[in-house]
Amino acid sequence: MTEAILLVGGKGTRLRPLTVHTPKPMVPAAGVPFLTHQLARARAAGVEHIVLATSYLAEVFEPYFGDGSALGLHLEYVTEVEPLGTGGAIRNVASRLHSGPDDPVLIFNGDILTGLDIRALVDTHRTSGADVSLHLTRVEDPRAFGLVPTDDTGRVTAFLEKPQTPEEIVTDQINAGAYVFNRSVIDTIPAGRPVSVERETFPGLLADGAHLQGMVDSTYWLDLGTPQAFVRGSADLVQGRAPSPAVPGRRGDRLVLDGAEVAPDAKLGGGTVVGPAARVGAGAQVDGSTVLDGAVIEPGAVVRDSLIGAGARIGARTVLDGAVIGDGAVVGADNELRGGIRIWCGADIPAGAVRFSSDQ
């Protein structure tokens, strides 16, 4: 089966403060680092060798995953000294690949949660005779994405960056962040400088007459680039809406990990995850949220669609709705934080100090 490259070097700026101390692919989703789900799905599709293209906080990955043997994989790590972009990162790890020039190589973005049929993408690549094949998905509002129109055979005809007017929206198909490259195509990417595969490599290949094939797979797909999307993705994994063989424990309305303490009358639902050594106090309500390792939800607090960082503390009767609380932050009792507000790591908000939402 095909070997793969996983692009995990991004800074995760849109996810801050979650990514201040943790690279985006290592932020826990449904109880394990998100990257674990991607690795497990690749292995289930028959992939055995994966090269991780790292950059930001690169030192975190190998101590956790090691050589990959625990997942049935052979993992290697290549670190960019300076960020090289998606195309540059692919080129930078090429020397670690074992494939021959005509062999297919899978490439995944490290922030996409998807139910993609990986084997079907590889099969499409082989049967179409393409140089590069792309996973495409359909979205209702494509203005935030790059459009990828195809002809009747699925062959890509153009790459259109983030259309804004109705006339520019010629398709609802977008680049979904998973590709198959012929190994020889990777060697044509310029080495030693930043390259965007979306803005430079793909349009350049198309202009040179290369065969780029699209495969529309409209199963579950979610870009986890924002805190709200990340929390939703974690909940979808717990509830079984998003597929992964790596979810620890049974799927259901909640996931309470070993070592967590939840009061008997606390109410958990909506795919909530309570991490190891975390505590949820009496009468607290936690819905559709992620409570990371060692965090504390005090009695009577209400937490909805929020992410509580490792070691953070949420005071009694405080209400959080769509909030992101950084690692080690303290939100005192009787506060109310709504509307996507983010509290930085280590911040300390006194009791009763805030009735605030970011959309006010």
UniProtKB/TrEMBL annotation:
PANTHER family, sorted: SUGAR-1-PHOSPHATE GUANYL TRANSFERASE
The species is: Streptomyces noursei (Streptomyces albulus)
**What Pfam family is a match for this entry?**
GMPPB_C
Phylogenetic classification of the source organism = Bacteria, Bacillati, Actinomycetota, Actinomycetes, Kitasatosporales
Its domain of life? Answer: Bacteria
This one is known as GDP-mannose pyrophosphorylase
Q: Where is the Nucleotidyl transferase domain?
A: 4-237
Q: Where is the Mannose-1-phosphate guanyltransferase C-terminal domain?
A: 254-333
The Swiss-Prot or TrEMBL record describes its family as follows: Belongs to the transferase hexapeptide repeat family.
Q: Which Gene Ontology terms cover its molecular function?
A: transferase activity
